[in-house]
Amino acid sequence: MPSVKQKSLEIEISPCDGGNELKLSGEINEDLIVDELVGYKAGVVKVDFENVKMINSCGVREWIKLMEALANQGSKVEYYNCPQIVVQQVNMVTGFVPEGGSVVTFYAPYFCDECENEEKVLLVTSELDGREAPERKCGECGAESEIDAMEDVYLNFIPE
Amino acid sequence: MKINYLTKSEELGSDKLGNLLGDQEVYSDFNNIGSEDFLIVDISLLEELKDYFELFKKKAKNLVFVSTSNDYNIKYAFNILSRSAPPYHIVGLNSEECLTKVAELVNSIFKNKPMGLSDMIGVYKDNVEVKIQDSSKISETIRETLGQIEFDNCFSQIKDNLSQLINELLYNALFNAPTDDAGEQQFLEQDRKDHVSLDAAKAATLKIFNSEERIFTSVVDHYGSITKEVIDAHISKNEVSDKAGGAGIGLSLIYNNSHELIFVVEPGVQTEVISVINKYKRFKQNMQHVRSFHFFIKE
Predict the structure, then answer these.
(1) Does residue A113 belong to the interface with chain B, where contact is any CB pair within 8 Å?
(2) Which of B155, B191, B248 sits opposite A109 (nearest CB)?
(3) Phi, psi at B219, each rounded to 5°
(4) Candidates 3.40.1130, 1.10.3680, 3.40.50, 3.10.450; CATH matching B2-110
(5) In this predicted model, what pLDDT tens digit does every residue of B176-199 receive, in sequence order?
(6) pTM value?
(7) CA torsion, points B31, B32, B33, B37, in degrees to nearest 10?
């Protein structure tokens, strides 16, 4: 399994159905070198953001360049396990998700009023009813727990 | 000093503001504004009152835009404010709290209390101060600095948000603020992959004060070069720039991560940027909290 180690980010690349999966670990910043991550066979590119710890404005710009390069080689990009800091960029920055790309799974904060437990819950975009997040049982006390965000803002990337 | 407040809101009208100010008289008359007076304008009236803005800007020393609805047209308000003389202020986003914020602001200016960090803080739990002159040390400095602070009673995402906020503040202080003897920005177009190192005397200072209720972050550069035009052009930007240098959305990330964002500029001497975040257990309350922006020029 090839692994690309850059200054602030490590990318594990592995084949998957119809393309490649990129698992990212570290920070997306100005040190991202786009050229090292393009040129693979066109197809689906599944990006796993699970271990992305930070992203800054210069990182956002480099990321958009990478997405444009992948789109130009005919790849379709899918985002998985997006933490809150990535969801923020998806909602705010034009082009962070490339044309034709999608957010398949993402984390949302949940809060239980009963025991004040905070959890990050992985949601599947296609299972949501538009911009409405489902209620769930708190992982600590079993009481009802609800999304801890303004849904119309946090889930803004989901088409109505 | 007279307070004039123009709004259509009945619930959040001049009576309510007068009460919050300790039963002060609040006027709704924009024809008789003195140079020291406050003029507080509801953003929803911007379009309707646009013919009067040249007059307002000339007359009112303290011009405040307030949004009494959640439909907060920040871009428009900034655009108008950028053409007026500082100080300028925008308060909005959460209708229930915004007038309280306006009252605090009016009181602080009445008492001639500046809005710099040293005037805002009391006794706090953590007090971190670090100087930074080399941009290659930014990530490490942020990790070490935030590692020293306990953010109890706060949603867990706060550390990631602060990390991003401080990163952008420090990049601005080290790449965008420095000017040469002719006043030209030295590193504005420099590739951010190539690091810069400032003289020790010009190092930026990062301070974090963590209280029970709020987190104050201050970054001071020793150039005082940012202008309201630059802020206006970038604060609500959501498209990255393809020009050499920064991506152009850093200020927008800073604003989005702050409840209160304050610029105090001493032209040619220093700029202090202060971000205030109110601490909540719930991320949703953080999102809903009133946002405000203030720009001061120190002569």
Answers:
(1) no
(2) B155
(3) -125, 125
(4) 3.40.50
(5) 999 998 888 888 888 888 899 999
(6) 0.88
(7) -140
